[in-house]
Amino acid sequence: MTETISVTADTINSWADDQEGPVALTCKQKLLPVEGEGGVIFPPTYAMDEGKPPYNIDTLSDGTKVATIDSVGSQANRMEPIFKAAKPGETENPLSKLVPQIDIAYGNEKTVSILDAGHRLGDAVIRSSELKDEAQTAFKLYLDTGDASTLAKLAPTSLVFGVWDSRDTQAKLPRLVQSVIRAWDVDPLTRSAVYNAPLNYAKLGVFDEDVKEKAERDAKRPESQRGFVNALASATHGGVVARGPIERVITINLVALRKLNGENSQDLRRYILGLALVAATKPLDGFLRQGCLLVPDENAPAQWLAVARNGNRTSVELSAAIALDYAKAAADKFGVGQNRRVAFKKELAQDDLKELDKKKEKKTKTAA
């Protein structure tokens, strides 16, 4: 890495268009707990074997423990809603004009945004709505011809963050933006707590003293689970301390981007790249969960790098403002899909559930 280049619209256009251009853009950002270096943070919890901390902690060959603080999927789910329109009474969100706002109406005037659907355009809520046929047609067009333009008009963030229509057409598009947060060289901690019931429910006749004593020793009893007796939580998971860095690593896959084709392919790729750059450069909302509030380390500013095919790394001056200006122009040129409100259909959901039974029946007949 021997130089730093200023980023212009022409620079970004070349990233989208030049087949011999950089293979990726990448950024490594050091984060700190709000309490400062060495502060305790709480990773996400998962179902683990009994006796083990419910965190995703890997041990490297040299003994270093690395904890996942926010996974690739979780980061994508945090970034995608930045494009949602503001709710009534909220300040207008300029990013919402970059993508079509599609809401699925259900129940008593309730709605869910496609930007909140975990599987994006391949989600069950899409297959259970009036958007089902259009989504299926768009996926099939991509499978048959490689044309992603219809997908970009319906759900462009499905191209940015990846989508797999695993329960229908099997169309699969890779993530262009990938982000993950890991903490290095961590030590897991434990914590204990005591709950004191405000009343002695046994003396009040709700249950007898024998039941009370048993419940205070067995957290699985209903009296304990419902909070009617004193309870002790001993040596449960208490977060981790990172002796090494806490890092957020972001990658934009330019090779996968350049494989997107369709009507007005150049405009399509530039539009999707604009969205990817906006998502990747927008400052992180560091409140990941209770006990995990992270901020950038001001003494270690993040730096974007363009990585060439030969491994050469060039520093690029890429900012959120540059990304947004480019994305606005690219969206105007490509044409953002229309905002829509579609209805959830219970019958479509029920039919979708029957598809699994049909597949099982077909598989049984084939095996026979």
Supply the helix-strand structural class: alpha+beta
Number of helices: 12
Could you give the order of the helices and strands?
A: EHEEEEHEEHHHHEEEEHHEEHHEEEEHEH
Q: Work out the strand percent.
A: 25-35%
Low-confidence stretches: none
The backbone outline, from C-alpha atoms, is globular
Number-wise, the strands total: 18
Radius of gyration: 25 Å
How many domains make up the 3D coordinates? 2
Biggest β-sheet, characterized? 10 strands, mixed
Helix content: 25-40%
Distance, first to last CA: 62 Å
Mean pLDDT: 93
Describe what you observe in this structure.
32% of the residues lie in helices and 26% in strands. The model has no long low-confidence stretch (mean pLDDT 93). The radius of gyration is 25 Å and the shape is globular. It folds into two domains: 4-31 and 70-181 and 247-357, no CATH class; 186-240, no CATH class. Strands 1, 2, 4, 5, 10, 13, 14, 15, 16 and 17 form a ten-stranded mixed sheet that branches. The protein has a three-stranded antiparallel sheet with strand order 3-12-11, with no helix packed on it. Strands 7-6-18 form a three-stranded mixed sheet, with no helix packed on it. With 368 residues, it is of the alpha+beta class.
